[in-house]
Specification:
Structural class: alpha/beta
Strand order of the largest sheet: 9-8-10-11-7-12-13-14-15
InterPro entries: P-loop_NTPase (IPR027417), T2SS/T4SS_dom (IPR001482), T4SS_GSP_E_ATPase (IPR050921)
CATH class of the largest domain: Alpha Beta
Order of helices and strands: HHHHHHEEEHEEEHHEHEEHEHEHHEEEEH
Helix content: 25-40%
CATH topology of the largest domain: Rossmann fold
Oligomer: single chain
Family: Belongs to the GSP E family.
Number of domains: 3
Number of strands: 15
GO molecular function, one term: ATP hydrolysis activity
Radius of gyration: 26 Å
CATH architecture of the largest domain: 3-Layer(aba) Sandwich
CATH superfamily of the largest domain: P-loop containing nucleotide triphosphate hydrolases
Distance between the termini: 66 Å
Strand content: 15-25%
Mean pLDDT: 85
Protein name: CpaF family protein
Number of helices: 15
Low-confidence stretches: 1-8
Length: 436
Amino acid sequence: MSTEIEFSDDSEVFVHSQQFQDIKNWTHEHLLTRIEELGAEFGRWSRASIQQFVELELESFVRLQRVPVNERETQLIADALTKELAGLGPLEDLLADPAVEDILINGHRNVYVSRRGVLQRESLRFADDDHVIRIVRRILAPLGRRLDEANPMVDARLPDGGRLNVVIEPLAIDGVSVSIRKFRKDPLTPAELVKLGTFDPAIAQVLEMAVRARCNVLVSGGTSSGKTSLLNALATFIPDTERVVTIEDTAELSLGHSHVVRLESRPGGFDGAGLVSIRDLLRNSLRMRPDRIIVGEVRGAEVIEMLQAMSTGHDGSMGTIHASSPRECLYRLEMLAGFAGFQGSEVSLRRQIANAIDFIVQIGRLPSGHRRILSISEVTGVNDNVVAMQELYRHETVHGPDGEDRDRWVSLGIQPHSPKIARLRQSLRAAGERRV
């Protein structure tokens, strides 16, 4: 019994044809009628049993209705119908494809997929917006989330760690909008990121030194620039003897660490009751004896608690923030603190930021789709009431002799001035002398 089909060129043409959609819709309605006759019994069937049921019913339907399809095309329709009844329909293959990073649906006719940072339109189709909503509701059902007129916007975490966002009418004007962000089951390690070209070995050493020295690090970048993947990789440098607490809106981090407490915020109900914010979790985490606190994304009032935690004994904490440059990252911290009602002068806020943050790692997605660390900057203090920084490394794109663009990271010849790194170097030097 076949469950997966390898497409030939002819099969691809047929699957994406109107004939395929029409026959699939006709037989789907026939199967739904048969399922109603079976009642509760159908709900207890395994996927293999559903596949067999679909193939037998489809064979009978094609013969009686004299549907003009050959054996190969019949199997393609059966496979699609099985996914409709027992799986996630057209989304099933995309969700199973490890190369797919994002799935974006803008109405049932427009499906886009991101692979290796490049967004392309997919040829797969849904019958209509109701078809899309039916598949989405099947994803949401085990999560206990609703999607209807009273709840036209849903944000949910998938069982595999991915993230789902859905907006339906009347909020989505041109049809249902679905955004699915997938995450790797096994997060990328620093060595793998070096191999992929995200940064070079010299930068890997600087990042390892910063994390081991318990420097506070912010990963700054735009949407889908690789911030979460980089944060996961940085966490591999944290010693196993330390207790790590992660705080996120939607749990996306997957740290390869032996002692992690994962906390996730909770949206409020229709009247706001039951809301647990990132700020609430951050305050509570300080009572959980954390060695390090990792905030998945700094985007609101929690910035004040995070800066205080970094300044008062929770060295080695990390987080991500949406910003287009290290300087913009600092501006955004100031803005968020101001919105949160920071009680103090502008100068005192900047001094607290400079005291809390040690390094800003800027990551971005290039036009080619490649994700690269664009710069590493060290926060050195406050000069003339402005937070001072020094750039340690900068990314440049150079043209090789073969005409292809190549990545290069230029060291500006400045060594980190952080006393935390100085202490780590001294301890490593002393340990090396003792071993000798």
